[in-house]
Automatic annotation (TrEMBL), chains A, B, C, D:
CDD domains found in the cross-reference section: DUF326 (cd08026)
Signal peptide, first to last residue: none
Organism: Vreelandella maris
InterPro entries attached to this UniProt entry: Csp_YhjQ, YHJQ-like
Protein name: Four-helix bundle copper-binding protein
Gene3D superfamilies: 1.20.1270.360
UniProt superkingdom: Bacteria
Length: 109, 109, 109, 109
């Protein structure tokens, strides 16, 4: 299939979207939701751009690099925020975000 | 993470979305595009509902089953249409669709 | 255009998605975020299903009714939750959700 | 509501997404689908980025400008392609795309 060349980046985007969606839900169930507000805010955007990036790569779009460049920025910001929190869902999400940021940056280069 | 229980269904949805997006692009490059029109039409819808289903499961949504029920129907229809065409992208997409249809049907049950 | 027959429902979905996305952000900036957690949780899902419903109607999909049926349920739940909160963003979002619920229910009938 | 300042751009994005989704379906029903292949290909991407742009503006995202910049490019390309075809759905879609391109360019400036 045409998308094979983007496979590792597509996979990183899909995994990151799942972790972000899941992390946002878990953050909303924390005792101190206010402390997680920035995390929730970025998780939403990160999940959305990751899914778009995966779709554009799968379509072989000439705009996939442009999307991946922004996706790398958002993943970095989201991962940095998640990394500040000790909850397991945040720590695992941070890893998925940082991995996706690096895949997307390489793709956009 | 919370989403572990849906892991195989989420993964099937993500993979199916990628195959459908990619198959639609490949269909548009075929010599006889008209013959692929129904395939392209269903690929678009299938990729969209698969991404929504993955997101709702990752969020632990109480509506995930409802979405998976429709997703199973669309994946079945899309897989059946793809299976009619000999092109490799259609045959592989058909497999991804039928696998996802069965994962989503099990999830919705 | 083909989508004219769904015009009022598509418009209601688009408007509802915008109010839900905006309401979630505003909720995250409230002093008592914990009180808004359920609202944020439903806003996310509501915005997503509304955008999918609008897209499926615009595509003239045979699955548009199925999606609108679920969309009506989610809009109703989200509107009911928003209506409990006095903040202007919640009150306006509740109106957009309840209007969209009624448009989608009519469409699905 | 917070999103009032982006209102005309959000509306242009929502309208453009609907026209693109609808145009793609209509293109797939044309006698000469092959002639419409590039139009269908761009319609898909344009509808997707428009919906993301609308959502990011509604959320008040700090990345909304970045998304609108790409959205302007894709809308321009899609509108230029649609404008080449005489079918009413293409001509109307071209107008919606070009209007959205100009709104997004202004937003990103």
């Amino acid at each position: 299939m045409e998308f094979e060349k983007y496979k590792s980046c597509i996979e990183a985007c899909n995994v990151c979207a799942v972790y972000c969606d899941s992390c946002a839900t878990a953050c909303l169930q924390e005792d101190d939701v206010k402390m997680m507000a920035e995390c929730i805010r970025l998780d939403r955007q990160c999940a959305q751009i990751c899914r778009l990036a995966a779709s554009f790569m799968a379509q072989g779009s000439e705009y996939a690099k442009d999307i991946c460049r922004i996706c790398a920025d958002i993943c970095k910001a989201c991962g940095d925020e998640c990394a500040k929190h000790d909850a397991e869902h945040c720590q695992e999400c941070a890893k998925a975000c940082h991995h996706c940021a690096s895949e997307c940056a390489a793709m956009a280069a």
